[in-house]
């Protein structure tokens, strides 16, 4: 496409001069600009203090306090190229004041404004992934200071956390609620039940090894129920957003925060939902460098030998394309969009029905 | 999503050390490594000479020479985050040898390997947009040298060009064949007819002002028929790729290069196709800075006042979201995926049925 403006050209926008605190006096510790404990609805900012790399950063915060009941924190915009979360969070703020009957809900639509503005997974200023630096550091770089502010001021106010992610622009994934395996069996069972309450097409128990510094690891270590909603991948479109909003509504009903009847949203041709698990060994990796062509769709059931995708070497047209096939009966839970990949880069995640015995769910 | 590898971390891969010519002797002028005029199928490389910024760059080239008939050049991978083109081109190379009955087809699946490998619209090495530097410069930076090599060695071998683009990851668009308005009425009519032969859901005559240095401008100035296929946007998935391949096959049938009966591919719920035109004044721009939420889908017909999308200011939750509405009866031909946008950034392209009188099509 011929585009006049380039988002990437703006990647440096969040330089020192743009990270302001709106003229408010600079504080050296993270703080809220409003009384979040007041009854009813309130709005303001969580101010992440300035540091060597950036001025103070105000994160917009919404709070709706209706007394006794579940204490829920909803966050979006951890990764700047996963914008389903901020949009669904922003919609939620419109209808929650009419709908919420008890408890407390705090919503932070955008945890990482510099990344969102740059349409970048990581923070542009320091190159860090916010979801790998929890609990953060008060004297660290801006990403670490965001994590520190959230960990210290907002997380203690919640017993349950919904962190609204997506698979970003270069994967396809059905709308899903996910959790990592948790050593504490009771917390694991509670978390899986909470995840299933979204009634998304897929609930996924996802084992992988790169979990150090993740927000959910911190929350789980404090005994909190933390569900990561992975709201699809690819284009952020109106149809998918409608599904996501239904899922969040379902989860709020399950918590008793709002009244209503849960709906099971349809996704493409799939009307059922299922709880799956995937392990590191279920990752399908590219056997060579080249362009990956997806040849199946998410939620497809595949048998041993079925075609998942094709790897096209692109350095020479004399090199044959390579078929990538399923090694066992599986369900395709995520597949890479057409992209240039390196050898051993993950191009699909396969899964199987969750073993109920493990988690008592 | 938790991804272990970051494409952006690889953006610098195409440094001097990676731009090699595979051990072949370096030449100071662009050249082909094989005899492209030989009858039948041949494969090799178009070597873009080394420069101050990069070693020589070999672009894989496929040629199928069946004597008299149309002379067609098909190119993909001009922009590195539009990978539908390279995949469809690569598939074409598999079936064309069996199917082509006359004429000559040259296929270059990836015009800009450094951009494709970095999943970047522009070339990483020099930051340039390949589709803004034609006809290029022999002594320029690597993007300009690619344009120069293609303009001097490949373009003269073709009377017709299909350049396979897409709208990239952060727009939605139906599979389309497009052309800019052309001053030469005969060439315009021929080009629109060629574009319509793809039988995509949309044929689009697209007026905009930022056309200097575009590949089609160069080809049109030489009297060639040049169609830009804009193969959708967002996730590169298997269903969309199937539509794209049908469209290219239809166009080859129309040229008489292959035999067969054209099909009209269905796209989502739309089974018709239409020829539309859009002008600069049809661009819908964001009235403020914030996250754009699409609220309609491509090919939707909208009337004056219908909701196109919502702009959510994100710096403060006290600022109201802003509805963006259609100013007149239109068809939505492209809509921005959910993304952070600046004030006056384009978020949708509206269109109307093409005025047949203008182009005699």
TrEMBL record, chains A, B:
PANTHER family: BLL3975 PROTEIN
Top-level division of the source organism's lineage: Bacteria
Name this polypeptide is given: Peptidase M14
Spans annotated as Disordered: 1-29
Ranges of residues in domain Succinylglutamate desuccinylase/Aspartoacylase catalytic: 69-252
Keywords assigned: Hydrolase, Metal-binding, Zinc
Cofactor(s) this protein cannot do without: Zn(2+)
Keyword RNA-binding found: no
Record field: transmembrane: none
Organism the protein comes from: Bradyrhizobium iriomotense
SUPFAM superfamilies, per database record: Zn-dependent exopeptidases
Metal-binding in keyword set: yes
């Amino acid at each position: 496409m011929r585009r006049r403006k380039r988002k990437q050209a703006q990647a440096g926008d969040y330089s020192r001069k743009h990270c302001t605190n709106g003229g408010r006096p600079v504080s050296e510790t993270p703080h809220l600009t409003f009384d979040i404990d007041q009854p009813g609805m309130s709005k303001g900012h969580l101010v992440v203090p300035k540091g060597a790399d950036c001025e103070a950063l105000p994160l917009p915060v919404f709070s709706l306090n209706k007394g006794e009941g579940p204490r829920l924190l909803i966050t979006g915009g951890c990764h700047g190229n996963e914008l389903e979360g901020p949009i669904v969070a922003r919609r939620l703020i419109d209808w929650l004041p009419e709908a919420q009957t008890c408890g407390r809900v705090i919503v932070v639509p955008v945890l990482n404004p510099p990344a969102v503005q740059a349409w970048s997974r990581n923070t542009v200023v320091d190159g860090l992934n916010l979801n790998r630096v929890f609990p953060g550091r008060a004297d660290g770089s801006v990403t670490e200071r965001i994590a520190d502010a959230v960990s210290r001021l907002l997380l203690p106010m919640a017993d349950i956390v919904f962190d609204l992610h997506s698979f970003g622009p270069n994967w396809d994934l059905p709308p899903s609620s996910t959790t990592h395996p948790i050593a504490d069996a009771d917390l694991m069972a509670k978390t899986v039940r909470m995840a299933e309450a979204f009634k998304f097409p897929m609930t996924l128990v996802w084992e992988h090894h790169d979990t150090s510094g993740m927000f959910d690891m911190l929350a789980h270590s404090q005994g909190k129920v933390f569900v990561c909603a992975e709201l699809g991948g690819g284009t952020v479109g109106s149809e998918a957003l409608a599904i996501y909003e239904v899922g969040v509504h379902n989860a709020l009903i399950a918590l008793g925060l709002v009244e209503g009847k849960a709906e099971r949203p349809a996704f493409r041709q799939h009307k059922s939902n299922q709880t799956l698990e995937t392990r590191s060994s279920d990752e399908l990796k590219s056997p060579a460098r080249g362009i990956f062509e997806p040849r199946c769709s998410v939620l497809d059931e595949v048998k041993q030998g079925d075609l998942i995708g094709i790897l096209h070497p692109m350095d020479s047209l004399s090199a044959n394309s390579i078929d990538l096939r399923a090694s066992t009966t599986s369900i395709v839970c995520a597949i890479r969009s057409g992209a240039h990949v390196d050898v051993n880069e993950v191009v699909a995640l396969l899964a199987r029905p969750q073993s109920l015995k493990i988690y008592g769910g």
